[in-house]
Amino acid sequence: MNVFRLAGDMTHLMSVLVLLLKIHTIKSCAGISLKTQELYALVFATRYLDIFIHFVSLYNTVMKLIFLGSSFSILWYMRHHKIVRRTYDKDQDTFRHHFLILPCLLLALLINEKFTFMEVMWTFSLFLEAVAILPQLVLLQRTRNIDNLTGQYVFLLGAYRALYILNWIYRYFTEPHYVHWITWISGLVQTLLYADFFYYYFLSWKNNVKLQLPA
C-alpha cells in the first residue's frame, strides 16, 4: 500500500458515496446512466470472484464488499425504487452498452497473463471498466444538464483511475519485476476517455459557471 493507491481507493469510494447520496437523499437519478451502472456491476462481479477463496487483507475484502454491495444497490434504486426510477431519463440513455461486453470478453480470451477462468474474468473486468463510462459521458453530452453531484461523481471516478496510474508508476520504480502492461494500458485508455470531461469540469470551476459538455 502506498499513498497513491490509498488516495485512489478513497477517491473511488467517495465517488460511490456521492452517487448514493444523490440517489438516497434527493431521491433522484437524473443525469445518471443506468447502462454505465450495469457495466460497473458486471465489472465488480467478475473482478471479485475470488472474494471468498483468496484472502489478501481485511482492507481488501471490505473494499470489495463495499463496491459489490453499492453497485447492486444503485441498480436496485434505479430500476425498482418507486420514486427514484421515475427520474431516470431512459429516452436519453440509449447507448448500446451490450456491444461493449462481447468485444471485451473476446479480447480477454485472446490477451491475458494466464489462461484460467479467474484470470480471464479479471482481465475482462479491466477491459470493460476502461469503457464502462462511455454511456455516462454520452448521456451528459445529450442532456447538457449536469447537476453538482453528478459532475462530482464523474470527476471522482476519473480522478480515481488517474491516481491509480500514479500508483502503478510508483510501484514500477520501487518494486522489482512489477510489470502489468494489460492493467496499465486499460487504465490509460480509461483515463483518456475522461480528458474532455476534465477539461470542461476545470473550466466551469475556474469560471464559476454551471458545468456543461458540448453536444
Task: Sum up the overall morphology in one term.
Answer: globular
Mean pLDDT: 92
Strands, total number: 0
**Tally of helical runs:** 9
- Spell the H/E element sequence: HHHHHHHHH
Q: Which structural class matches the secondary elements? A: mainly alpha
Strand-helix topology:
Elements: H1 3-26, H2 34-47, H3 58-80, H4 98-110, H5 117-131, H6 134-143, H7 148-174, H8 181-193, H9 195-207
Helix pairs in contact: 1-3, 1-7, 2-3, 2-5, 4-5, 5-8, 7-8
Keywords:
71% helix, ER-Golgi transport, 9 helices, 0% strand, globular, mainly alpha, 215 residues
Your description of this structure?
The chain is mostly helical and 215 residues long. The chain is built from nine helices and no strands. The protein has one domain (3-207). The radius of gyration is 17 Å and the shape is globular. The model has no long low-confidence stretch (mean pLDDT 92). Keywords: Endoplasmic reticulum, ER-Golgi transport, Membrane, Protein transport, Receptor, Transmembrane, Transmembrane helix, Transport. GO terms for molecular function: ER retention sequence binding. This is ER lumen protein-retaining receptor.
Describe this structure in a few short sentences.
One of its GO terms (cellular component) is endoplasmic reticulum membrane. The protein is mainly α. The protein has helices at residues 3-26, 34-47, 58-80, 98-110, 117-131, 134-143, 148-174, 181-193, 195-207.
